[in-house]
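Q: What residues go here?
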């Protein structure tokens, strides 16, 4: 991507867009926009609300089981929504649209990968969760100790902490890139604010706060998705998909993968 100055538009695969910190395209380039007072009030109230929620839920905790597993008494629908919410990260919001709309060879074929998710979820729900829940353990690493001993438990815990720590770092960085464009704030400051607020409400409220905050964030996510679709439809003449390349609308492509040669031609 090559662009000059803050007012020029960048272009990737014949798709023009405004590079940070510019977010709106005009006839002569990009226009720098920022949040209004009401926007900042809503954002601040949202972050303060999460912290207040953590104090409210945290004061009812009486044991380690309350803190780590929500007392094993949380409604099933909150757990379900939380699982759905955690399947979508900032990386998904940035990388998947880029793959679908901009990457060479990309498109809705990404859905082929997602087809495996519900199958995996069903297997976990029917075969793993009932057994692990019957053991009344806090984490799966306790089961590893019961089955294989403490060495395996600590080794796998270390691997998870390292891999999840790096993954979370990338997710936090990706989120901050998006937010600094919208907020017009410094990247490092954005990362610090997000990290501190998240640590506060997660640490105080335990698992219940994590789950209920996921439910709230899922609602915000779906509401934003609906609003974006409405505005995009209103700003597009005719059908939105008419302006989308036909090749990118293919969601199931069997011309590559198992049973096919490297050139994408089926050999069976």
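A:
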């Amino acid at each position: 991507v090559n662009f000059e100055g803050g007012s020029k538009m960048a272009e990737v695969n014949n798709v023009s867009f405004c590079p940070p910190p510019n977010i709106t395209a005009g006839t002569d380039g990009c226009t720098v926009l920022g949040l209004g007072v009401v926007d900042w009030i809503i954002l601040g109230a949202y972050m303060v609300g999460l912290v207040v929620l953590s104090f409210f839920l945290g004061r009812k905790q009486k044991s380690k089981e309350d803190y780590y597993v929500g007392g094993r008494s949380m409604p099933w629908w909150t757990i379900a929504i939380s699982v759905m919410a955690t399947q979508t990260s900032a990386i998904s919001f940035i990388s998947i649209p880029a793959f679908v709309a901009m990457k060479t060879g990309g498109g809705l074929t990404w859905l082929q990968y997602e087809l495996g998710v519900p199958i995996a979820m069903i297997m976990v729900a029917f075969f793993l969760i009932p057994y692990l829940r019957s053991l009344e353990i806090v984490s799966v690493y306790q089961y590893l100790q019961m089955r294989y001993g403490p060495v395996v438990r600590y080794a796998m815990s270390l691997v998870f902490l390292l891999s999840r720590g790096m993954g979370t770092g990338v997710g936090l960085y990706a989120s901050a890139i998006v937010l600094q464009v919208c907020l017009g704030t410094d990247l490092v400051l954005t990362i610090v604010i997000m990290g501190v607020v998240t640590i506060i409400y997660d640490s105080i409220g335990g698992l219940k706060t994590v789950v209920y905050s996921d439910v709230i964030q899922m609602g915000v996510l779906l509401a934003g998705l609906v609003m974006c679709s409405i505005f995009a439809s209103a700003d597009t003449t005719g059908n939105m998909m008419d302006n989308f390349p036909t090749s990118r609308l293919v969601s199931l492509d069997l011309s590559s993968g198992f049973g096919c040669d490297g050139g994408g031609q089926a050999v069976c």
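A: Context that may help when evaluating the design: The mean pLDDT is 79. The chain has nine helices and four strands.
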